[in-house]
Amino acid sequence: MCQRCVRAGWSCSWDPETEAIPSAVPSRIFHTQRETRFFDFFRANTIADLSGWASSYFWQRLVLQMAHSELAPRRAVIALGALHSDGVNSPHVLRYYGEALTTLRQLLTQSHSPTGMVSIDVCLATCLLLSIFEVARRDYDAAQIHYTQGVQLLKQHSQTQTQTQHRYQLAFYERTLLAQFSHLETLIISFLTSRPGYHQDAIFVEYNITQLAIPSCFPSIPEAHESFIRLLHSIQNRATRAANTLAFASPDSVPDDDGIFPHRETYSASMRQAAALRAVNQESLLGLTRWSAAFYACIASTQNPSLADRRVIALLKGISTMLYIRCSRDPALGQMAADAFLPEYEFAMTQFETAVDLAWEERTSSPSSSAASSSSSSPSPTSDSITTNQSRPSKSKPAVTPLFSLCTGILNHVYALHEACRDARIRRRGLAVLERMPYQEGLWTGEKASRVVGAIGQFEERNRVPGVEGVEGIKKEDRVVGVNFHYYPDRFKIIADWERGRREVGWVMVEL
C-alpha cells in the first residue's frame, strides 16, 4: 500500500508485490545518529504517552509515515523526541524546533497554490506537533499561536474544497487531524484561554450524525473506539451550535469584565426552547443507538480480549453512558433533569473505576512497556512496593519526565458526572477515580484534577441538607448552572453561577 493511501485511509486499486514497512525509519533520512536516537525515542516513548488510554492511528501510524516522507513533521518529531528524552536544557532541542518551524513557514507560503492533500495534512500535523512541543516546555502563548494557525488552515481548507474533494479527502481529516485538534482544544487550549471546553469554536468539520458510517458489528475494539470519537465530536459540535444559536445572536460568547461567560443566558434559553434541543438530542440518540449496537456486537464476537481491549471497552462503556444521559435529559427541567439518571451514573462510574484498575494492572504487569513511562504523579492503587520499583530510575538510563496524553480519557467525563450527579457517595467515588488517573490528560494530573473538581463540588456540598447523601440533598436553588475559571500555571481560579439567580456567587483559588 502506498504512503498516500496509508495516510488517507484509502486502498490502492492494484496489488503489486511490496516489501513490508520497516519497524523503524531508515537512518539514511536523518543527518546524524543523534537524530536517529531522538526519533527512536519518540517512536517508542513519546507516542505511548500521547496515545494514553487507547491505541491511536494518528500517533502510531500516520505521524510516523509523515516523518518518513516529509521534512517539516520529521524535524518536529525529532525536536519533540529530543525535548522528551533530554529535557528543555538540551542544546539540540531548539535547533531542531527552529528547523521544523522554518520548513513549516516555507510550506505555508505556498498555501495559495493548489498544493493538494499532502501539503495540507503535513502543515496541520506540524502545527499540532509544534503546539505540543510548546506545551511540553510550558510556553503556552507559543502553543496557542501554533494551534490558531492550524485552525485557520482547517477553516481555509474546508471552505475551498469541492464537493468531490470533500467526499474523498475530508474522511481522512475527520478521522485523524480533526480529532487531535479537538483533543488539544478540550484538554489544553480551552484552559489556557480561560473558557469552558464546551464553548469551543465549533469550526471543525461537522459530521452528519445520521450518515456516519457505522457497521452492524465493528471488526475490532480499536475500530469501535475510532468510530466513537467521530460520533462524540459530532454530537458535541451539534449541541454547542444549537445552544449558542438559541441563546445568542452571535455564536461566539465572550466574558464580561469579571471574566464570567454567559452560562445563565445559555441555561435559560435551553429551558425556554427545550423543544428545539430535544430534536437535536433525538438525532444524537439515533446515532448513539447505532454505534452501541455495533459496539456490543463487537464485544460479543471478541474472544479472549487483551488487557488493553478490556480497558478500552470499560472506558467506552462509561463515556457512551455519559453521552446517553446528556442526550436523554429533558432540557426543560434544567439542573433537576439529572436526578432521574442515578442508575446510569452509577454504571458509568463503575466502568471508569474498572478502566482505571485495568490501566494500572497493565502497567504493573508490563514493567518494560513503554506505557510505563507515561505515568502521572498518581500512585498505583494495588501495591506500594510495585510502584516504588517502577518509579526507581534505572542504573543504565536516567529517569524521563512523562509527557501528557492527548486523547479521549476520563477527565472531562468524570467531571461532568461529578457536576451533574448530586449523590454524595458517587461524587466521592469520582474524586477517588481522578486521584488514581493513570495518565496525565493534557494539563491535568490526577492530583490536580481531583483538587479542582473537589473545589467545584464544594459550591454545592456546603449547602447540602444535613444527613442526606442522595440527590435530594442538594436543593434546586443551591445547584450550580455554570462554572467559569481563570487558569494560571500555579493556581486555578473557579467562579460559579448558581440556580438562585445571582450572577456571581463566589470564587475560590486552588493552588496547583
From TrEMBL:
Chain positions covered by the region annotation Disordered: 366-398
Polar residues composition-biased segments: 384-393
UniProt-recorded Gene Ontology molecular function terms: DNA binding; metal ion binding
Alphabetical keyword list: DNA-binding, Metal-binding, Nucleus, Transcription, Transcription regulation, Zinc
Compositionally skewed regions (Low complexity) per UniProt: 366-383
Pfam families for this protein: Fungal_trans_2 (PF11951)
Chloroplast in keyword set: no
TM helices/strands, residue ranges: none
Domain of life: Eukaryota
PANTHER family in UniProt: ASPERCRYPTIN BIOSYNTHESIS CLUSTER-SPECIFIC TRANSCRIPTION REGULATOR ATNN-RELATED (PTHR36206), HYPOTHETICAL CONSERVED PROTEIN (EUROFUNG)-RELATED (PTHR36206:SF4)
Name of the protein described by the UniProt record: Zn(2)-C6 fungal-type domain-containing protein
Lineage of origin: Eukaryota, Fungi, Dikarya, Ascomycota, Pezizomycotina
